[in-house]
Amino acid sequence: MGRIELWLSSVLRGGVLLSALLVLLGGGWFLELHGQAPIPRGPEGIGTLGYGAQVTPGQGLSLGQPEGVISLGLLVLVLTPLVRVALSAALFLVERDWIFVLITLWVLVLLVASLLGFL
Fold first, then answer.
1. Is the dihedral of CA 58, 15, 73, 28 positive or negative?
2. Rounded to two decimals, what is the model's pTM?
3. How many domains in the chain?
4. What Cα–Cα distance (Å) separates residue 3 from each residue in 7, 9, 95?
5. What one-character DSSP code corresponds to residue 72?
6. Three-state secondary structure call for residue 18
7. How far is CA 56 from the centre of its chain?
8. Most exposed of 33, 42, 75, 94 (fewest Cβ within 10 Å)?
C-alpha cells in the first residue's frame, strides 16, 4: 500500500473510531443519568426522548450534558469524509498530480456545499 493510501485509510479509521468512542461515552453517560427514567408517552414524547431540547455539541459540552458528547461524535463522523477528501487534495498537490487535484477539489466543493445546504 502506498503512502497516500496509508494516510487516507488512517484518517478514515481514526475518524470512525473517535466518533464511535464519543457516541459510546455519551450514550453511557446518558444512560447513567436517565436510565431509570420512564419512557415518555403521548405527543410530547414523539420524536424526542423528552429529556430536553436538542443541543449543539458546543452547547451540550458547555452545559455538561451527555447529548453534547453524542452530538460531537456524530459531527466527527460526518466531517471524517470531508477531512479525507481535503487530505487527498493536499497529498495529490504534493505529488503534483494536477488532474486528481482538480477532481478532488471539485468533490470537496460539492461536499461542503451539500453540508451547508446549498445542494
1. negative
2. 0.75
3. 1
4. 6, 10, 11
5. H
6. helix
7. 12
8. 42
Taking the C-alpha atoms of residue 30 and residue 20, their distance in angstroms, rounded to an integer, is 15
What confidence score (pLDDT) does residue 118 get?
Answer: 84
Q: What is the mean pLDDT of residues 53-62?
A: 66
| C-alpha cell belonging to residue 50 | 423528552
Split at pLDDT 50, 70, 90, the class of 63 is confident
User: In this predicted model, what pLDDT tens digit does every residue of 65-103 receive, in sequence order?
Assistant: 788 888 889 999 999 999 999 999 998 999 898 999 999
Chain length of the chain = 119
Its domain, for residue 8, covers 3-115
Are the beta carbons of 33 and 69 closer than 8 angstroms?
no
